[in-house]
Amino acid sequence: MIEANLSQTHQRLGEIIYSYYQLTKPRIIPLLLVTTAAGMWMAGEGKVDPFLLLITLLGGTLAAASAQALNCIYDRDIDYTMERTRHRPIPSGKIQPRDAALFAIALGTLSFILLSAFVNLLSALLAMAGIVFYMAIYTHLLKRHTTQNIVIGGAAGAIPALVGWAAVRNDLTWAPWLLFALVFLWTPPHFWALALMIKDDYAQVGVPMLPVVAGEEATTGQIWVYSLILVPSSLLLVYPLHASGLLYGLVAAILGFIFLKKAWLLKQVPTDKDLARSLFKFSILYMMLLCAGIVVDSLPITHYLVGTLPNI
């Protein structure tokens, strides 16, 4: 009997922990950390202290988790209405909004303490600015009121790149702001591709995503425009900023060509959800590989190998 009660207690505790884990929307966080890491390696020119990396990524994880938990509280009404989100912890009744709020505040507070104590105050303030911007600007002011919600709101998702650079250099120069701009420009094609796939869900709850208000043709046109700006902008890290080298430039050019091809194909058939899904999935891979290109390009071994090429 005692063993059965202990088993039930452990099972219940596991379910509670998992619910709080789900509250942070964990699938979103890795992409934010990738841009943070890219900013750190670019700032450190391939040399990043392991402890600094660990604390910065941990602080960034906690800040992002806090923002997502707060978002779940704010959007619990539309989450309950949409079938896709109805089973999230708050609308399903697994976590109460008050408990979620305390959890989010604790995560944000711990993030600030870690970053300010073990990294620097600038990185800590930037992480907090990301939470505030995501909630106050995107979630509250923009998401339910304008088709430009994801365009302006994309700045929140771009802040981790600044956090990464600031963690290493304790300043902000042109290079991290360009990385910020790349994430900012990438966000509309990425998110609008998703919005094309779940257009009916947004329409059901009255969220004015661009495909709902302007239609698929206008949306794919905007995706194409942002893609045309994003791809050449990604090469500015090579020239004139010289923040990254030829290896990154090659990676950015190849990825950019594929990105443009997929955006163009979607523009030709705006209602094709399979093409939208293909672009959405590739956009994730694009950003991850672009950031990986920044990291690998910054390594001393890469500089050495590239330097030997003229002698081959």
Automatic annotation (TrEMBL):
PROSITE patterns to which the protein is assigned, alphabetical: UBIA (PS00943)
Pathway of action: Porphyrin-containing compound metabolism; heme O biosynthesis; heme O from protoheme: step 1/1
Location relative to the cell: Cell membrane
Catalytic activity: heme b + (2E,6E)-farnesyl diphosphate + H2O = Fe(II)-heme o + diphosphate
Job description of the protein: Converts heme B (protoheme IX) to heme O by substitution of the vinyl group on carbon 2 of heme B porphyrin ring with a hydroxyethyl farnesyl side group.
Other information: Carbon 2 of the heme B porphyrin ring is defined according to the Fischer nomenclature.
Name of the protein described by the UniProt record: Protoheme IX farnesyltransferase
Gene this protein is translated from: ctaB
